[in-house]
Specification:
The protein is α+β, with helices and mostly antiparallel strands. The protein has helices at 2-30, 47-51, 95-103, 130-136, 159-179, and strands at residues 39-40, 45-46, 63-65, 73-78, 82-88, 110-111, 117-119, 123-127, 141-147. The strands form 2 sheets. The chain has a 7-stranded antiparallel beta sheet, sandwiched between helices. It is globular.
Length: 180
């Protein structure tokens, strides 16, 4: 019986060594992974801002963006969650014309409180101050956000629109600080 007990103890010790060694290998291997991205869309959004637009926040987000003011249109894609674009309108008065074109996709549109902008079901847009136009050497800079994943069925009664407007105004304020 002692040999049977010894064999069980030896097997248990071997299993513990394997599990412990595997955990150690995984923790050491994790050191090679790049740190999660913390700044998005020209430094205008944080990870917390980005996760505010998702129904189920993720561990990692990545963004692809063009440089600001390299052309009349700069954009930033954050995974399949949303796209932020910075473009130049012909004049400051055309912000509502742009809103009318985009809002044609949705009968619902509301003003963003305290900002020259609007929000509908999956888009929002805001006109940046004229100081930003001077920094960009383009007239009437217009920042727009579009949710690119299909969250509308999950977010009822307007929470997505509120979050879109909040993230858009956050990005607009930070970009205004950078550009103006």
């Amino acid at each position: 019986m002692n040999t049977f007990r010894t064999k069980i103890l030896a097997a248990a010790a071997a299993a513990a060594l394997l599990v412990g060694g595997g955990a150690l290998a995984l923790s050491l291997r994790g050191g090679d992974e790049p740190a999660p991205q913390t700044s998005f869309c020209w430094g205008s959004l944080t990870r917390e801002d980005v996760s505010a637009l998702t129904v189920e926040p993720r561990e990692r987000y990545t963004s692809t963006e063009t440089a600001v003011a390299t052309s009349r249109l700069s954009y930033c894609h954050v995974d399949d969650e949303f796209m932020l674009s910075l473009e130049s309108l012909h004049s400051a008065e055309s912000v509502w014309g742009t809103a009318d074109e985009v809002a044609a996709e949705s009968p619902v549109r509301a003003l963003i409180p305290g900002a020259p902008g609007w929000v509908n079901r999956t888009y929002a847009g805001v006109l940046l101050p004229t100081d930003c136009a001077d920094a960009l050497a383009e007239p009437a800079p217009y920042l727009q956000i579009q949710a690119t994943n299909d969250q509308e069925d999950t977010w009822r009664d307007g929470p997505l629109q509120k979050r879109i407007a909040t993230v858009l105004t956050t990005a607009a304020e930070r970009l205004t600080g950078t550009l103006g």
